[in-house]
Amino acid sequence: MSQPTRPQEEQTFEEYVRTRHTALMRSARRLVADPLDAQDLLQTSLARTYVRWERIADKRLADAYLRRVMFNTRTEWWRARRLTEIPIEHLPDTSVADCADQHADRVELMDAIKLLAPLQRSVVLLRHWQQMSTDETATALGIAPGTVKSTLHRALAHLRQALERRDPEWASPPATRDG
User: Fold this and answer.
1) Which of 71, 161, 149 is nearest to 116 (CA)?
2) How far apart are CA 52 and CA 97, in angstroms?
3) What's the pLDDT tens digit per position in 109-150?
4) 8 Å CB contact between 157 and 165
């Protein structure tokens, strides 16, 4: 069997970008705050991946490859930015936000997630952490979309109960939790 020609590789790359663009954009949005920067990040990463597309033997791993390229590109951008100091006469009286409560909440949530069954944990992480759709999650786990929905429902109920047992204030709406 002969090596695939460049036009065949171009066609597979174009098809890949067409089918995975939305999911890849979600990944880019998680890496940078500005939506326009996310578009730039994705385009730069796609251009860098296109040059090496023929070298990716298993195209099923293209998402992971591209996410790594996006991460590395974002890191390059961060390192390249120049920070300049602007001297001012008076320092403003502003406070720095304390994220200790958010960090504590995240630690509590991660501890509660560890209590879930493996399938429930996978569904929760793919749906909410990776922001995959129900169908994408079902495909990734090799289960039916209905199973994803019911498993997610049970997992979230289990998490809610576990968090309420640890701290009864978790049951109240976030606006009233601050006291």
Assistant:
1) 161
2) 43
3) 888 889 899 999 999 989 988 889 999 999 999 999 999 999
4) no
